Description:
- 2 copies of one chain form a homodimer.
- With 518 residues, chain A is α/β, with parallel strands linked by helices.
- Chain A has 3 domains: 145 residues, Rossmann fold (3-Layer(aba) Sandwich); 188 residues, Rossmann fold (3-Layer(aba) Sandwich), CATH 3.40.50.12780; 97 residues, ANL, C-terminal domain (GMP Synthetase, Chain A, domain 3, 2-Layer Sandwich), CATH 3.30.300.30.
- The first copy, chain A, contains 16 helices and 26 strands.
- Chains A and B meet through α1, α8 and β16 of A and α1, α8 and β16 of B.
Amino acid sequence: MELTQALRRAALLKGPQLALEFDGEQFTWSAFADRVARLAAAYRSLGMGPGDRVAVLAVNSGRYVEQFFAPLWGGGMMVPINTRWSVPEMIYALEDSTPVLLVVDAQHSHLVSDLLKGAPSIRHVILAEPQGEGELLDYEALIAEAAPAPDAGRGGDNVAAIFYTGGTTGRSKGVMLTHDNLFFNALAGLSNLFFHPNTVHIHTGPLFHMAAGARIYTTTVAMGRHVVVPGFDPLTVLKTIQEKHVTHMVLAPTMLNMLVNHPDFQDYDLSSLELLSYGASPMAEALIRKIIELVPQAKIVQSYGMTELSPVATSLSPECHWPDHPLFSKVTSAGQPIFFCDVRIVDEGDQDVPRGEIGEIVVRGPNVMKGYWNKPELTAEALRGGYMHTGDAGYMDEDGFVFLVDRVKDMIISGGENVFSAEVEDVLMKHPAVLECAVIGIPDEKWGEKVHAIVRFKAGEAAGSDDLTAHCRSLLGGYKIPRSFDFWTDPLPQSGAGKILKSELRKPFWDRKDRGIS
Amino acid sequence: MELTQALRRAALLKGPQLALEFDGEQFTWSAFADRVARLAAAYRSLGMGPGDRVAVLAVNSGRYVEQFFAPLWGGGMMVPINTRWSVPEMIYALEDSTPVLLVVDAQHSHLVSDLLKGAPSIRHVILAEPQGEGELLDYEALIAEAAPAPDAGRGGDNVAAIFYTGGTTGRSKGVMLTHDNLFFNALAGLSNLFFHPNTVHIHTGPLFHMAAGARIYTTTVAMGRHVVVPGFDPLTVLKTIQEKHVTHMVLAPTMLNMLVNHPDFQDYDLSSLELLSYGASPMAEALIRKIIELVPQAKIVQSYGMTELSPVATSLSPECHWPDHPLFSKVTSAGQPIFFCDVRIVDEGDQDVPRGEIGEIVVRGPNVMKGYWNKPELTAEALRGGYMHTGDAGYMDEDGFVFLVDRVKDMIISGGENVFSAEVEDVLMKHPAVLECAVIGIPDEKWGEKVHAIVRFKAGEAAGSDDLTAHCRSLLGGYKIPRSFDFWTDPLPQSGAGKILKSELRKPFWDRKDRGIS
């Protein structure tokens, strides 16, 4: 399978119909496919060869959606860069993936000179805006001047995109997802998320994340309509749903919460909504009830997975969200394995644990990544025995529902973003005053969890919260920076093996054991 | 992908729930998977090695459904045999596919000694009935005595089944379908046919045909319930829909017609029906209106394809069957290409013809067969340029709907069965009195088309219809035997190249050019 086939098919079957809307611009499927074919030709003439990378650093836009196809159409791959990263983090991903082209938007063009210093592989930088500016290549001029290239037809097991994800080792890893990986995820989504040719999908989440990015492919395979907004802003989303008759949406529960609690919520007509899907963290029962009350016609579906799974592994169906349905007892679960996923719960020796017992969740299927870019050892470790080791702890009940109980990987999910504690701890330890530290997630009304640091200083030394915060900000993306600090004088509690016992540290903040949070 | 994964998943997620019902027998998903695992072990102990074939000659039953998994679970393949064939035709397929095991039901056990003479590869014959009989191996004893085998995990590009299909060369061909081929078809079906975990599918069509057989996999991937009836009998089907709350059904239009025109139709509660799908031939508008009147809650979907496409290539959505919908203008089409199918209309040089012009329909996608068993040259010819050449002539309109206008291959579709004229003509030519002949399809109220032969005898010789019918019956399956004859004394009309002009012969029987029939 080629992901570009979905675009070719939509252009063939729905050529004159609207495919993509963003900020007043509208493109039909014919125009969309034509622009992608021209961009692909331009990228090739700028030096993109088979398998070469095109990095993208931008907030959501119609032009970002085109990056999900144009590099692939030309035989290359896309590498989306997290806009929330610090410059050193961006440079790390660019050095690692060695793209030949960089596509940026106006919001990020000021970073280009710094990025180019650290990433010499980049030959050209393209400004993805309606008009050109400065020395960067003009996106629309490239399109206008190129003749459409034929689809390179590079599909199947070839990598389509590299999505960077946080890592327990303190450095992010490039997850290689193939055309087949992403096409399978789209096919499952058609059925589990009730996509159809009249679907109108609003893309609100950052497209450099798989949770939002994968929907570009699902919507295209379904031949639905893409409606893009720059990012999540409750009022913009409400307005857009009403104006564009949006049917499908994916949001983190924290964002859904902001949406339904917005004071102007009742002013908007949301009767077009058919499907609300969420992931990243559990949804409170009160929020579910509120959504059902406010948009009773909309189905609610939870997806659980990770970038390495393209990204969905389990799905919690609409019935499980209906308070009067017998399956409502499963609402605290992450749902059941999707069609082609073998999901097992295993012990440290990769042996199945009995049903109901806690172990690590491992997944096999055609949606499992090809591997980590440039990291054969980490790949072999993650995929040992043919199963992706999620690092999440959980159990499976007698009906095959998977319940997450903790993260084997020490990860915090804050507003839908994954923060790996080890990465933040590494940075704190670089501060000259810090002797030891632990970073944990603690409850937060708005973001689900927030990053909290417990720090012990060297004898005779100290630093304030502001100092530590500034130190972190110089090296980490904003969402990773601790929002609060505790300063200890006693040693942090350790296990017999000398590991800090984070469960002890978390206890005072969490009064009950909950999904994904302990 | 392994097709057996679908069964493993259903057993994991819905173990204690009903999976399969047939003739008073009921099996849960756990029991179904356990029986398949035991059968697989038994087949292996009887000599089935990796890639070995298990032939099946039976009418529909629960045990037939188990054949869609047990050989695969053990690492082998299934070869269904058409029960409507003559013994020489059956022997041809058995000689060609060289199975090590043959599974028969009581209705066909009297043929075993003849078949074994012609097919020496068969080492054991198993009687697929609740109780044993005579010298054949007892199916239930095999299950009871075997320990469950682990799934061989032979999936992906490995062949799962060989389905025999008629050929223009006068001999049937074994179509090799892989695990991936059939899994992709099932995934598309989930969405296009609105399958869900509460689907109850009645299997009425003969399972040795892909049109019915593929639904075994779709239903299993969806974790729906299989309800099996021995064959199509209108009253049994009506009763079963009511009793088992059937939601999904696939029928040829001729059978749908018999169903809705059955005098007792109104006595049955068919309110559970959600989806009626059909293929093989177009549906008359009057029939569509009648169905909508009688079962207004049911969606109607047409699928077009062929065995070589696992089997679906295009799908005509429910809206296209609603007389008040703008898309009703497409109801005479075969629908649009399904998600992963590239469908093109090409000329004799495999070049695209302009939209709206007639050419041969060719298809590329992950559902295209691996090839014809033992026939590398026919395979290369059929799959030239990477596209399956369907042999069907048609055009694509500006909205991507495919209209069939004729068959490039000279084929008659009678009651859902494909009859290749060349095969019947070959047999007629073996009769000592026949000088030349042509076999065509002519209109038939009940079966859509019926097989009609035009025969010219050698000088001074002749034969009656009865004599020719008996001659055909000795060599051909019943559905291929001409139902009527015309005897000519003049030469049959020929083209400049010396080919009989069948279009001329068909004209008097058909007053309008219609889909699939000219």
